[in-house]
Amino acid sequence: MSTNLPDFTTRLLIDAGIEKGMRILDVGCGSGDVSFLLCDLVGRDAEVIGVDHDAQAIATARQRGAAQNHPSLTFLQCELLELQDSIGTFDAIVGRRVLMYQKDAVASIRALSKYLRPNGIVVFQEHDTTMVPASLDPFPLHKRAQSWIQEMIAREGADLHIGFNLHGIFTKAGLTVESVRAECLIQTPSTPYGLGYIVRACLPRIAALGVASAEEVDIETLQERLDQERSASSGVYIGDVMFGSWARKA
Question: Looking at the whole model, is its pTM more than 0.85?
Fold first, then answer.
């Protein structure tokens, strides 16, 4: 029997009630990964609108959308709190790694809720550093690389404990929370994980914020060194915890 399971995001969306025919708003959509996943879940007769403040990310998302021929998908460049009423209302509002960057998460959810239809769903997936990194073995390089990312996020003003705060945020915004869940990202000696590639993608931000220098990171050898550290150990390393929650508008 196959042990392949849908990833955390897919399971979260399905369990929250995302289904065929829905009209969905994907906030902070970036280059569109979650938007495309939503299109697969809701079908071609539904509608998905992705919004993001980053013009380059939206341009990339539009190019990807054109190549994949998703007639039900639209991307808009817009600040999360500057949506126009003409955008209409939605059956669900979705976001991934977005709420943690909002200065006032409760106000953001409250503002978004006005675009939510009665009984509509809000679904957010966020990363939380409260309990990680965690391991019995030392894993010094893994923890150092993870600390670069965590410190970068902290200096950018993100809420590093957003997962533990999700229930309170939704409740204070006037929504009824239906579920909060979390899942650890576990690395073993035989489980490859591209932490080095994530650091590479974040390196300009890491350097610009003064978290670490390019020489300190040594990005060209980082992933190889991480793989060697993990394969030399018989232990388990947990570097990330994903929280997901959904709530409903009365």
Answer: yes
